[in-house]
């Protein structure tokens, strides 16, 4: 016997065992001349029978014939089915019918799942008659086959019917049964979906001052009133009007804003209608809950169980609650402060609290992406943070009862005039009594107090080109696939997600920032994404080639941190 015949026979035995014996039968290979006694006993033969050629050389298997059992006008029909090229295929079978397959030495009655009971019974009777009609070998048998549970011998009569058992030695049998063995199909199905479209989008254009003023004016015209509250201890109290616009990063604030909602008149309204007939303007209330980046979540819990309940009972479905975090405020909220938005470190000084010895305070005024998103954020006093593109406020305290200190408003050589005006207004608002306020331009700093107060002269950047190019992308697979999304131009340090990888472009370098809880898959895909982004920039900005650098959390370089306004310590969340 040829090797192919041996393998094919073994394969058929494996399939019979799997499909018809629940994989519980034992398969034994018997070689001629070395048969076991159990083998001969099962055949009903003597242990040494005569074995010779029993198939003539001119033998050809009989051509199969297939009949379709049907019901005619009160009688049974048995039309023969045409078999293209005498090759049986599964497509010839139909679930609604019953077929008889005649292979001369075997007769099979195939019963479709949707066939009628009458035809099934008639087909079994017809098959018996068909078997007796012509001369057949004595071992000819009639086999009943149910759709979906066909015996293996029946399947061998068809081309391509379950010809190969799905086997993959790299996976478990359950996995092969569940997902199949065709790796091409599996790879196509499991192909990782990625969305890198954000990397190829142009940078968000910076809003002009004229456009910003127009939007601020429009939003402030809609504002009817704003009430401010601040968390003192375990309850919210009204915020003094002189403190409006001055925030502390360890406090929580609540702002109740009432907006007019214009009523649209019907188109068919007559021009001469009296004013009394016009409907009154409607309103809606938006409550902004502002949380400093160093404040605990207890403020939010206190709000939801106290003030929010009160507001809901007052305004009902006209109330909208917006929770916002430091430096992640929306533009509409920021517009109400008209660029006078100050963020101080620490907690707000309580009215009856004892006087504390003041320390040097240093503020950086900066707008991100839009003049509306202008903030004056307190930073560490250090001359290396100066930049001619911006304005700064430095307060140097004195040990004197008459004069508390001197306040310098430092105007960078490349700063906008509007920024200088805002910085001056903020300085006068924060330091009202017993302070000397001086406007100084870059290069005119007094040696005695300014440089001493800021910690001594240090070299600092002479331009801020990164403001024109800075972009922050987030790489994440939280959607079920890997995607890259761009943060808005007004991004901040808290946008760096600890369980993701971030890509920062500062115009000279592209940083890959890796959080502490990032998966290896995200890191690899983000690395490839950063390479794709750099290659894209080579075509778009050939005059500004970028280098790819790594930035680990807590170990970021100054070239990385300068892109974030008010960079400081990370807010650590308790596990």
From TrEMBL:
- Listed Pfam families: Gelsolin
Q: Which GO terms describe its biological process?
A: actin filament severing; actin polymerization or depolymerization; barbed-end actin filament capping; myofibril assembly
For this UniProt entry, the molecular function terms from Gene Ontology, in alphabetical order, are: actin filament binding; phosphatidylinositol-4,5-bisphosphate binding
Its GO CC terms are: actin cytoskeleton; cytoplasm; nucleus
* Keyword annotations: Repeat
The record places domain Gelsolin-like at: 84-154, 485-539
The UniProt entry, under SMART domains, shows: GEL
SUPFAM superfamilies, per database record: Actin depolymerizing proteins (SSF55753)
- Classify the source by domain of life: Eukaryota
Give the PANTHER family listed for this entry: PROTEIN FLIGHTLESS-1 HOMOLOG (PTHR11977:SF51), VILLIN (PTHR11977)
Q: What name has this protein been given in UniProt?
A: Gelsolin-like domain-containing protein
């Amino acid at each position: 016997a040829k090797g192919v015949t041996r393998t094919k026979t073994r394969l058929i035995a494996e399939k019979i065992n799997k499909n018809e014996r629940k994989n519980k039968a034992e398969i034994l290979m018997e070689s001629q001349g070395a048969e076991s006694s159990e083998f001969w006993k099962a055949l009903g033969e003597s242990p040494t029978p005569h074995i010779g050629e029993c198939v003539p050389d001119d033998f050809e298997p009989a051509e199969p014939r297939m009949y379709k059992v049907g019901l005619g006008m009160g009688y049974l029909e048995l039309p023969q089915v045409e078999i293209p090229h005498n090759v049986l295929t599964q497509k010839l079978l139909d679930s609604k019918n019953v077929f008889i397959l005649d292979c001369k030495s075997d007769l099979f009655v195939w019963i479709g799942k949707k066939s009628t009971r009458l035809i099934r019974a008639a087909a079994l009777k017809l098959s018996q008659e068909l078997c007796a009609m012509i001369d057949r070998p004595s071992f000819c048998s009639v086999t009943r086959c149910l759709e979906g549970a066909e015996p293996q011998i029946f399947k061998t009569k068809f081309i391509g019917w379950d010809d190969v058992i799905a086997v993959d030695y790299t996976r478990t049998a359950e996995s092969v049964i569940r997902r199949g063995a065709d790796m091409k199909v599996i790879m196509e199905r499991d192909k990782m979906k990625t969305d890198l479209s954000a990397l190829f989008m142009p940078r968000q254009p910076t809003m002009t001052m004229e456009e910003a003023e127009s939007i601020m004016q429009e939003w402030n015209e809609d504002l009817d009133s704003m009430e401010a509250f601040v968390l003192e201890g375990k309850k919210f109290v009204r915020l003094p009007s002189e403190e409006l616009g001055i925030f502390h990063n360890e406090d929580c604030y609540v702002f109740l804003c009432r907006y007019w909602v214009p009523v649209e008149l019907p188109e068919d309204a007559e021009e001469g209608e009296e004013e009394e007939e016009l409907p009154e303007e409607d309103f809606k209330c938006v409550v902004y809950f502002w949380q400093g980046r160093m404040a605990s979540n207890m403020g939010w819990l206190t709000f939801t169980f106290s003030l929010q309940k009160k507001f809901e009972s007052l305004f009902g479905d006209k109330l909208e609650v917006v929770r916002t975090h430091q430096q992640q405020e929306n533009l509409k909220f920021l517009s109400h402060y008209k660029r006078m938005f100050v963020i101080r470190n620490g907690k707000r000084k309580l009215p009856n609290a004892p006087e504390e010895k003041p320390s040097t305070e240093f503020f950086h005024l900066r707008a991100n992406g839009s003049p509306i998103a202008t903030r004056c954020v307190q930073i560490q006093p250090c001359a290396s943070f100066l930049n001619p593109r911006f304005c700064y406020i430095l307060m140097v305290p004195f040990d004197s009862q008459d004069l508390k200190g001197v306040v310098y408003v430092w105007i960078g050589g490349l700063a906008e005039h509007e920024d200088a005006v805002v910085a001056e207004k903020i300085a006068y608002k924060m330091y009202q009594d017993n302070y000397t306020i001086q406007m100084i331009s870059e290069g005119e700093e007094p040696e005695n107090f300014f440089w001493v107060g800021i910690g001594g002269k240090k070299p600092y950047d002479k331009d801020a080109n990164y403001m024109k190019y800075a972009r922050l992308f987030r790489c994440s697979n939280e959607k079920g696939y890997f995607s890259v999304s761009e943060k808005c131009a007004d991004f901040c340090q808290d946008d760096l997600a600890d369980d993701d990888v971030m890509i920062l472009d500062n115009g000279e370098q592209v940083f890959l920032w890796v959080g502490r809880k990032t998966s290896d898959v995200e890191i690899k895909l983000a690395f490839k994404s950063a390479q794709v982004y750099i290659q894209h920039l080579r075509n778009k900005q050939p005059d500004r080639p970028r280098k790819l650098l790594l930035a680990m959390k807590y170990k970021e370089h100054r070239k990385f941190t300068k892109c974030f306004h008010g960079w400081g310590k990370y807010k650590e969340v308790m596990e």
